[in-house]
Structures are given as C-alpha cells and as structure tokens.
Amino acid sequence: MLSELRTSKLSPHKYYDLYMRAFDELRKLEIFFKDEGKHGVSVVDLYELVQHAGNILPRLYLLCTVGSVYIKSKEAPAKEVLKDLVEMCHAVQHPLRGLFVRSYLAQISRDKLPDIGSEYEGDDGTVMDAVEFVLQNFTEMNKLWVRMQHQGPGRVREKQEKERNELRDLVGKNLHVLSQIEGVDLEMYKETVLPRVLEQVVNCKDDLSQYYLMDCIIQVFPDEYHLQTLETLLGACPQLQPTVDIKTVLSRLMDRLSNYAASSADVLPEFLQVEAFGKLSNAIGKVIETQVDMPAVGAITLYVSLLTFTLRVHPDRLDYVDLVLGACVKKLSNIPKLDDSRATKQVVALLSAPLEKYNDIVTALTLSNYPRVMDHLDNGTNKVMAMVIIQSIMKNNTCISTADKVEVLFELIKGLIKDMDGSDVDELDEDDFKDEQNSVARLIHMLYNNEPEEMLKIICTVRKHTMAGGPKRLPFTVPSLVFSALRLVRQLQGQEGDIVGEEVPATPKKIFQLLTQIIEDLSTVPSPELALRLSLQCAEAANDGDLEHVAYEFFTQAFVLYEEEIADSKAQVTAIHLIVGTLQRMNVFGVENRDTLTHKATGYSARLLKKPDQCRAVYACSHLFWVDDQDGVKDGERVLLCLKRALRIANAAQQMANVARGSSGPVTLFVEILNKYLYFFEKGNQQITGAAIQGLIELINTEKQSDSATPDSASDAFLASTMRYIQFQRQKGGIMGEKFESIKL
User: Fold this and answer.
1) Separation CA 558–CA 532 (nearest Å)
2) Worst-scoring range by mean pLDDT, 42-56, 76-90, 195-209, 605-619?
3) N or C: which end of the chain has fewer CB within 10 A?
4) Residue 653, domain extent
5) pTM (2 decimals)?
C-alpha cells in the first residue's frame, strides 16, 4: 500500500483518498509496534530496521510511524527524533508526494511536541525546539506546495490551480499547530514565529499561497497578538504579489480587531497604546497606492472595514470617521459617477455605518466629507441613501433643531426633493415616487426648535429647498411645510407687532405672509384644490389668533382659487362644502366681513352645475346663519330662507328628472332637508315650526305616492329612521317632548 503512494499518475484528489486509506492502516501498524515494544522488542532496533526499506517513500512513512512510538517510549529525547525525521523528509522532493509525507509527519507528531506542561518538556526538549520543528516542516511544505503550480495552457492551468487550492489545508495545519502550542507567548510570537512565517510568505512569491497563508495567520492566532504585532503584519502587505486579494485579507484583519474591541471595554486602551487606527490607515493608503489597478470596489471595501473598525474602537473620534470618508472621496475623485453596482453597494454600506452606530443623523451632519461621498453615487442610489437617512431619523425619532443642520440634511437628500441632472421624473415608478415624497413630508415634521426665531429660519430653509421640487413633488411636501408653520403660529399666538432688538422677528403676521406666498406658489403648479384646503387651514389659524384681516385674506384667496382655478364639478362641490364648514367655525369676523363671505358662499352654492349638488350646498349654508355657540350668530329667518330655497331646488330637480327620464327619482333630497328642519327645530329656531315640518312630511309622502316616483329602498329606510326619531322625541317627554308634540304624524 505504501508503495502505491509512489505513483505520479493520480490527481491530488485521488492521491488524497489513497493517502487516507494508508493513514488508517499506519495507525494500526503503530499500535502493533507499541505492542511489540511491550513484549520486549527494542524500539531502537525497530527504528533502525525500517530504515533498510528498499524505497524511500515507504521507508519514510514507516520511519515516522516507528518514530512516534520511539518518542512515546522516551528512549531518546523527543527533540532529537523530531529533528531526525524532519531532516530525513528532505529525501522526497516530488511536490505531491513530499507534501503528503510531511503532512503525515505533522499529524503523528502534534501530540508529542515538547510544550509547556507536556510530558516531553525538559530533557526531551523545549518549546523552542517544538516551534523550530513546526516552522521547518511548514517552510518545506509551503515550498513543495508552491512548486505544484503549473504553467501549461490556460484550461489545464486553471484545473491544476483548483486542485492545488484543495491541498492548502495541509500547509495551513502547521500554523494551527503553532497557535496551539502553549509555550508560544506574545514575546516568542513577536520575535520568532511571525517574522519566520512572514518571511516564507513574502519570499514564496506565489499569489495563491500568499493570500491563503495571510488569511491563516489572521484566523488562527489570537487577536491580542495581532494588535501587538500590527506593524510587522501590515508591513508585509505591500510586499505581496499585486494579484493577491489584499483587500479581503486586510478587511478580515480589521473585522477581527473590531470584534475584539467590541468584546470588552478593557481592551480599548491597548488599541490606543499601539495607535492601531493610524497604522491601519497608513497600510491601506500604501496598498491602494501600490496596487494602481485595484478596482474601486476593492478600495471602498477597505474603507468600509476601516470605518467599521474606527466606529467600534474610537466611536468618540469623529475626526477619524471624517478622515476615512475623506480618503474614500480622494479615491473616488477620478470617478464622476460609480457605474459598478458592487462598488455602489459598498459606498452605501460606508455611508450607513455612522447612522447605525450613532443612531443620530445629527452626528453624521457634522462630518464634512459625508455629503462629498454621496455626490459620487448615481441618481438611483443617491435616492436609496437619502431614504436610509430619512428612515434613520424616523426610527430614532431624531429632531433636527437648527437651520444650518437642516441645510446640510437637505443637501444630502437633494435626490428626493428635486430633479437631478440626467434623471427623468416621468420614468419613475409611481408608487416608489409617492413613498419617497411621503417620507420627505414626514421628515419636515421632525425639524423643530422651541425658539421661534430659529424655527422660522428652519421653515425658510425648507421652503427654499422644497419649492425647487417641481409640480409633481410640491403637492406632497407643501402641506407638511404649511402645517409646520401653523404649529409655530399657534406657539406664538398672543404676540403682536415686532419684537424689539430682533433682526428677523418671528411674528404670526410674518409667518402668515410667508404662508400666503407658499400657497400662491402651490396654486401655480397647478394644484388648486390643495391650495384651497391649505388657505382654509390658514384662515382657521388666523381666527384662533384673532387676526381678522389675515383670515379674510385667506378666505379671499380660497374664493379666487374657486372662481379661477377649480373647473371640475365634483371638485367644486367638495370645495364649497369645505368653505362653508370652515366659515361656520369662524368667530373673528365683524358683521360686514362675515356677511360678504357668507353671501359669496351661498351665491356659489346656488350656481353649482347639478341640481342635487346645488340643493345640498344651499341647505349646508343654513349653518352659516346659526352657530350654536354662546356668542354665535342666530338668524332664524335667513336659516329658513336657505332651507326654503333648498326645497325649491329639490323640487326643480324632481321635475327635471321627470322630464328627462319619465320618473322623478327618489325623495332623498326632501328627507335630507327634513333632517335639517328637525335640527334647527331642536336648537330653538323660532322660524322653524311644527306645522312647517308636518307640511314637509306630507309633501314627501305625496311625492312617494305619485305615479312618477321611483321606488328606492335607501331613501325609504332614511325616511323611516327619521320618522322613528320624531316619534322617539315625542315620547321622551319634557320640554323637547312638548315641542315635538306639535308635529302631527
């Protein structure tokens, strides 16, 4: 079986299978040799005997097997036997066969090294002997492994490299054994182990070997050793072959150190002591400078790892964070816009890291290089990053409280609030666009300062940015801006005139002037329905602040919008009801102004296109003449006029329906008017009498029984419910019961 291992015809994979079968048998042979030793056979004689085997390869396998028993017998010092064995393995120089025989030697010797606390320490040898043995075996194994590289045709070379890569663990196990030796303390690692290993790594000049062994060093040795030997380890990086994936090696080193720093606060002074940030930053700079062909994604990946390291080790050093971002900007300066999706993804990771660490966008806003990195993103990714920033603010409920920070923030998210060069707003997905703009609208509510002067500056800053958003964006963002300003108005209510000594006094009047301009800008978009709604909201706020002229101006603005901009009949109906509803709640107007506005509202109501809409708007206007407050208007006569006018319009609507369709339609409008009569009757309007209500009920019944009436279950149910209500009020007793007794059913 051992003679079969002499073959050169098997692939590394198949040779490995053969080796494993031989290994199992050799373990049995080792047990046999042990038993022979117990029965009086001299191990020394066995050790000499196997050296007479005819072929070198079987001889070495047998020699290693007996050598293992020889060391255990302690008939010779372990260091002498190990030295003898490692020297004899020089006899096999075929890369594949030599690699496996040395792997066998490493395997059978790992528990027989003269280590601290080991039974073989002392006269049998020292820790230094164990280290020397492992290092010598490692060096020779790496040389054999490197010699396996094939320089043939492309397809064959690729296959050979793949097979060679599969054998890497045979070499790496030596480093693992070194890391397990108890006697290898920091001093020995620093003075002996690391320099010797790195010397072999650099000198082998093979990219596969260099990448794997650097990764092995980082993975198998303790974190504190890496920290104390950082300069030595990083010094080897620029000496590696240009084709080595050094970014991954350095990234893994920084990730390990970052995790080490995060594991305990007690280790952080060590990082400061060795100036880890400065060394890592310099090493990355040298690598990027040396490897001029390194793609952008590689460099950015390194900066992401360095930033992660910085945020974990030096979270309080924002200057370090800004330095990393600045270095990234420098690298990207020759690339106007990234077109590599992997590089873009890494830039997003770089920008997201400070947000995740500090949970506070305000901290990120102080980093001067943060917006400069964002400028290198394409339009699509810029928006993604802007959304990440907004989501961070929402998640952490962060309040941005100064105009300067708002300015920086809106520069960061400019991709969402205005059209960027080269982007077409029409190409956007409608749902995505709405989500983006709704996020900006929510963000505006997170911008707040208790100081009125600063809050006014914030509002002006937001206005400057949002007004550049174009017709598609303004309907989303302007309402938030308006309500943010109205919140400030309510905060200032009661303050009148200029505040002495202030450069830009924040007074309600000044804010209302600003709001007038904002709404005018919105109405030119055009978005008249929204502008009208916001005008009415502002009028209500002016009413609460007792500013009659301001409120009148906003109502005038609303009526102008209604007259000149709103042409759609459905939109007109909605607008009239909004105007009437708002005007009804106003208590700031004097008699003249209120009459003017009321007259306008009733006039527009009667001029709506469809008769049913006219009817409903006119009976809604009746509430303008009866406000159920202590000092509210109570003009019963004009209420009755409105209701009678609504009845005439309802009657006209029935007749028109009869002419057009041959049937008068349902009596719903009459029932609705009946309910208004009942409302004012209850509220004590003397003009609304029981007889009038009784007459209206009779009219409804007559209409229902006419030949032209259209049966309608909904209006029948509505009427039945109204009649039950009247009956209920009659039976309730008391003053209200007496009033309702006058209605004869």
Assistant:
1) 5
2) 42-56
3) C
4) 610-744
5) 0.72
